[in-house]
Amino acid sequence: MKSFKYRLSPEGSECSYGTTDLRPCLGCPIEVEGCVVLMCTEGVALFSIDFHNYTFRRGDLLVVMYDRTVIPLKVSAGFRVEWVSLSLSVCNDTFYKISSVKFWDRFYFYPVCRLEPEHPRLVESWLLQVKWIARHTEDTYRTELLQSVFYQLMLSLCCEMERLSLASGKSEKRSHAWVVANDFMVLVGRHYVKHRDVAYYATRLCVSPDYLNKLSLKYILMTPKEYINRQCIMAIKTYLSSTDLSVKNIANELNYEDASYLCRFFRRMTGMSPLEYRERLGKP
């Protein structure tokens, strides 16, 4: 069986970079310690990001955080990406400095950035700057400089998202109830591996479980537990279809107490066992 996770960068590296067609890691999650920035320079690819599929084509930018599950599924002939990997020590400051909740929520729902025609050259300049810092600066200054350029990139994306939102003329005003329902979906996407109980999310959102249930039925058209279960099933199906990981290892990765528990849950939700599902896909 192939290795479960694929590393672009050496383990423990503060900053590394390169060019790849991603073919060696098709079907494998990319292991990210802090953040990986990818810019497509040729071709097109299909990614599973937190178990939702996204197209990634020439001129697009993808910023992968450490808390996301990113699996390259397909790549076209001639597909190429330039990538930069940064450690968590480099990225952490930016996560706190950019306080716009709207930006982070949108960033998690729409991870592939479609760049305007003039933007790829700016990103290419950013990549060159990171490479120069990695190659030519002393250890004393390298971390601080890398922190600065990463913050500049993310702040620029934040400003661009706000500009496009204003230019579209769409109102950003939403009811408090809609905001809570939206925040619930974001939280589930980030924490479902460790937390599958509705009470956890109600507490995080400062509402009662009953109120969260009403909001979820109104805005998501399912109960909070149904939404959490759907996220879990999507994750299991993606691992079964996109990797050759054993059911036991999938259970470990998704924090189930054992493979038997995962199998019972999967059968209850889908009417078949994980192995039956994999066989229907034509996988060994």
Structural commentary:
The protein folds into two domains: 163 residues, Sandwich (Jelly Rolls), CATH 2.60.120.280; 105 residues, Homeodomain-like (Arc Repressor Mutant, subunit A), CATH 1.10.10. The protein is 52% helix and 18% strand. It has eleven helices and ten strands. Strand 5 and strand 6 form a beta hairpin. Helix 5 crosses helix 7. The longest helix has 30 residues.
TL;DR of this structure?
With 284 residues, the protein is of the alpha+beta class.
Order of helices and strands: EEEEEEEEEHHEHHHHHHHHH
Strand-pairing-aware structural class: alpha+beta
Strand count:
10
Which range best describes the helical content: under 10%, 10-25%, 25-40%, 40-55%, 55-70% or over 70%?
A: 40-55%
The spatial strand order of the largest sheet comes to 2-9-4-7-10
Which ranges are low-confidence, i.e. pLDDT below 50, for 5 or more consecutive residues? none
> What is the CATH C-level name of the largest domain?
Mainly Beta
CATH topology label of the largest domain: Jelly Rolls
Q: Any idea what the CATH architecture of the largest domain is? A: Sandwich
**C-alpha-based Rg, rounded:** 20 Å
Overall, the morphology is globular
Beta-strand fraction estimate: 15-25%
Main sheet makeup? 5 strands, antiparallel
Query: Given the structure, what is the number of helices?
Result: 11
Question: What's the structural domain tally?
Answer: 2
| CATH evolutionary superfamily of the largest domain | Regulatory protein AraC
Q: Mean pLDDT, nearest integer?
A: 87
Distance between the termini: 11 Å
